[in-house]
Amino acid sequence: MTENRLAIIVLAAGQGTRMKSKLPKVLHPIAGRSLVGHVLTTASHLGAEHIEVVVRHERDQVAGAIVEQFPDAVIVDQDEIPGTGRAVEVALDAIPDFDGDVLVLSGDCPLADAVTLSAFVDEHRAAGAAATLMTAVVDDPSGYGRVIRDGAGGVDRIVEQKDATTEEAAIAEINAGMYVFRASALREHLPAVGVDNAQGEKYLTDIPGLLRGAGQRVAASVVSDVTVTFGVNDRAQLAEVGRLLNARIVRRWQLEGVTIVDPATTWIDDDAKLAPDVTLMPNTYIAGATVVESGAMIGPDTSLVDCEVGQDAVIRRSDATLAVIGAGANVGPFAYVRPGTVLGAKGKIGTFVETKNSQIGAGSKVPHLSYIGDTTIGDRVNLGAGAITANYDDIAKHRTEIGDEVHTGSHNVFVAPVRIGDGAKTGAGAVVRKDVPPGALALSVAPQRNVEGWVEKNRAGTGAAAAAVRAGEAANRETAE
Length: 481
Fold this sequence. Notes:
Blueprint: E1 6-12, E2 29-30, E3 33-34, H1 35-43, E4 50-55, H2 59-69, E5 74-77, H3 84-93, E6 101-106, H4 114-127, E7 131-137, E8 146-149, E9 155-159, H5 166-169, E10 173-182, H6 183-189, H7 207-213, E11 218-222, H8 235-255, E12 259-260, E13 266-268, E14 273-274, E15 279-280, E16 284-287, E17 291-292, E18 297-298, E19 302-305, E20 308-309, E21 314-315, E22 319-321, E23 324-325, E24 330-331, E25 336-337, E26 342-343, E27 348-356, E28 359-360, E29 365-373, E30 375-377, E31 388-390, E32 400-402, E33 413-415, E34 418-420, E35 425-426, E36 431-432, E37 441-442, H9 454-458, H10 463-480
Parallel strand pairs: 1-4, 1-6, 4-5, 7-11, 12-15, 13-16, 14-17, 15-18, 16-19, 17-20, 18-21, 19-22, 20-23, 21-24, 22-25, 23-26, 24-27, 25-27, 26-28, 27-29, 28-30, 30-32, 31-33, 32-34, 33-36, 35-37
Antiparallel strand pairs: 2-3, 6-10, 7-10, 8-9
């Protein structure tokens, strides 16, 4: 059964200085996951007995992030001896009884998908090789190790960029940094790899030459899609790899029946789920574990983070996080839907409305210019423009409860904790500090006082004063007539 056993080693020990970042390179995110997270997600689909991640730079931060998301992965610490060869050596030492194939991946190459890697392993096994390299032919091989072939077209060795002669540097076939080895071949030859090179590192790329010298076969698998080999070394490459990954995700959802009006301005994280007949308008970001049901229309200019959106809902020019939007509901434009918001079926969160930690019942509407925080709203409620639930008393947050079928006037403030009973009404401008019984009308009315002649006296010479004088004269004429 040795030929069917697989271990995966993910190299994540590098410093990544060209990122110029406090965040370790392999933890930089694209499409909702870190670079190494994408690699480990792919690795988890390959049926490996062991998945090991070799770490060194910012060890605790990298290891902590990996264990949190992939608890079955084994963290292996690289010692002071630098280089990919040493990284693989310490990983092999952690599985001394394993005797199958070892797939070596780079933690900064997130575009190698499970189909490609599975075919790569199968090709290695079919060739009966001691080692198989993934290679690619590129227009500009600068920075990559070159694949040196023998006279018969087989792989002879790999030469790193800094060790290559002018003739070797002109070779367009590059080492993609992904390999399959027989574990026994690695155990035999890794101890012989030295550090006598321009980098002073123990190169894993020395192994093919050692294997050839020992009369063992080294194969190469040339990928047709060079993008699967792309790695990330700086912010420019991070953006390019992110764009390529997003294009894949967008196309996948298009083929699943999702209408995406402008793929170039639509971004979808890898964990998002979209049903057939969803429509995504331009400038839309579907982030995290967002789920959107059939018939919903999202956008334009909308961001959803970890949201649930029901069937036939519409969300336009809005920002929502950790919210639930019910079937047939309508949000926006220009709504800010914060965590804990639950909008019922056919409900509405309208223009310039902010909600937080609030449940809004079926058919209920918060149409415009309102803040609703820490509030429970029943079914078929209509809040007038400018409604505010004042939830904070400078010490603690309090809840507002609004029953079913409540209709409120414009510019109301509900000072929590307060309850508005079923079917109650409130007048325009009311500041509601006390509970309102079911069916009652709540008013907070102060007598209106008009100071006659104030403008003419205090704003003499202004247009307002002149208009007031003219209006007074006209009124006097009408009275005289």
